[in-house]
Amino acid sequence: MTIFQRRLSTSSLIKIIIGIFFLFFVILPILSMFGRITSTSLASVFTSSQFSKALKNSLTTTFVATLISMTIGLVAAWSIERTAMRYKALFSTIIVLPMLIPSISHAFGLVALFGANGIVTRFFGLANGIYGFWGIVAGSVMYSFPVAYLMFTSILHYEDAMPHKAALVLGIPPLRRFVGITLPYLRKTFIAVFFAVFTMIITDYGVPLMIGGKTTTLSVLMYNKAVGMIDYSSGSVIGVLLLIPAIVAFLVDILNPEKGESGFVSELMESTNNRLALVASYVFNGAVLLAVLAPIVSFCIMVFQTKYPINTEFTLYHIEKTLNRGAGRYLINSIIYAFSAAVFGTSLAFVCSYMTSRMKGQLSYILHLISLTSMAIPGIVLGLSYVIFFSGTNIYGTLLIIALVNSVHFFASPYLMMYNALEKLNPNLEAVGMSLGIKRIRIVFDVIIPKVKSSLSEMFTYFFVNSMMTISAVSFLAPPAPKPVSLMINQFEAQLLMESAAFVSLLILLINLLTKGGFALAKKKFN
Amino acid sequence: MTKKLEISQVSKGYKENDVLKLVSFDVEDGEFLSILGPSGCGKTTLLRILIGLLEPDTGQIFKDGIDITNISPAQRGMGIVFQNYALFENMTVIQNIEYALRINKKTKANARHTAKEMMNVVGLNEQKDRLPRQLSGGQQQRVAIARTLALKPDVVLLDEPLSALDVATRISMREELKRLQDTFGTTMIYVTHDQEEAFALSDRIMIMDEGAISQIDTPIAICKQPANDYVQTFVLDNLKAKIASLAQFDLGKSS
After folding, report:
1. Of A251, A464, B135, B146, which sits 20 to 30 A from A474 (CA to CA)?
2. Is the reported ipTM for this assembly greater than 0.95?
3. Are A186 and A158 in contact, with CB atoms under 8 Å apart?
4. B108-121 vs B137-149: helix axis angle to the nearest 10?
5. Tens-digit pLDDT profile for residues B152-188
6. Any CB–CB contact under 8 A between B89 and chain A?
């Protein structure tokens, strides 16, 4: 055996092991979900009036919410990237705050403010509140616009200033430049953002479950069928339907790989000092800030006041009561899940992206594609397919299955992050190492990992924060697995324990803020 | 002179595309041999086969009469320097040089001593505690060369090491390379697409075209007797054009 054959087999072995992991934890579960579909379940789902109503509701609420999210995201991104606004760091931090709490908390925040007994509803003496169509739209916008904002920000940040300067010299006015240069530059991003946000909203069940009232969506229908009535067959039919927008989003994403950032930027755009633009930006972002903070403030009011608005005395009674109802134990479950998903997910994503980016070959390409597929599988679909595939096995109902489902569910983004970071490193590092008698593994630990450690910490926080707040896949698997705290929000609200639901939302926000803040501080200190 | 390397019938292909076609040549001990050719002629593939990063489809490589075709890069006693330096960017200059010495079981004191010696030789004493990104391109390439020479390899392969540098630095680095070769008596194989560089540096030049050797000889012999049209046009005519334009410039200045 030559050195080449030996080296080949070690790396191939690792690739094959990762491939087998994906086979058992992505491909086979999804296939087993398809296997559950029968002609009776197909017929019963498609002919029911419930289904056609839910389909219509899903499409209309999602479409409207997506457009609103994109508009808010784009305006916020433009004003922060392109005007000389002050306090940009503060604004951009608060804008992404909603990404740290579960979708269901946003809907709960709206209920707390505008629901039948909501703070604002009572204050103004309004009737009935915002359950239904507009509630779903508002709640969906709340958690999805930060995603649009981030996507638009990164693309606007890297827009090349040279074409604008050339146009300026030719005497083309600002609005024409925006329409003629910036908008075409954003075209691909618009498509990508649309599909990403659309998929996110249509597959979420948290918001419509909490605030939808009689307006049922596909995701809620699937949740009710699979979790409520244990009708996996009908659930699978809807699950497959929910895969469609996700697959389209996925294809759009891999077929449009360059989104501008990779291009050669000769000069970044300058910020405008235009007074009108500045005032508009402050007003707009101020309103966004208010909308983001209002539910969080209302949670605080509910948690720390004896009984708003009758008795506004400060109290820790609600916290104590919530902890007595087991919130502490559920919180510990959540932290264990989040931490193990972060450790396992980050390690797997690192090894996998190292194999696909720095040891290229046919196997690498296949592995790369499989790694990205997790992006196309909505959490509730993954959850249902895990129930179908793993029930009866040893890991069903254990902590392990939840840690695994979270690692898989949130795999694609951190994987891509590391893949891009590794691709940027000098391609000859390992070759030089070998010629100097240094093994590949030592180069990885001594040279590669120190170079990508900030990406590693970002991956870790991504897994952690998302596992902390997810309610999608886990709702199918827990129980029987120990419950994470995020699932308590819905339960407390259903039992009319509003203060406890608010406290749980705040707890998740707090843990995620601490995690993010801690890593940001560490990054500052060590770099 | 004795033979340092003997390359016999080496070939390599990717998907029906022959990158190297049964290449055979010898390298003398202590020689400075340039491999000259346009991009895509197979010179980098050849270099990667020599160091052991690529496996040849056919053929053998002998070093000091021993077949090293199936020996790992680490055990070939050869060093390599790349165009893009490939420095360990999280390590200082001295750590870059020491790192391999330590791993190759030198004591700490011993490694430090050798590293300091090497930094003297390449003139980077003042920069020893800097990180690579704080150095100029020329300085970075010096670190890469020092890192390779510190292990005292008897053959050093250089893959277009000066292409990323500006003209002035490139010319001073050429002299530096020659000086280092004299000091260490190392056999050097230098891959380049720059005719001028090859003629300025080499004991012998090997001209490659489409995966095969067009001519291998001393610069003077190549000038006197180019083996074929390709050598005449790609190498000599280009070189003459360059010299002619320089001569014109000199005339303009003096008038």
Report:
1. A251
2. no
3. no
4. 130
5. 899 999 999 888 888 888 888 888 888 888 888 899 9
6. yes
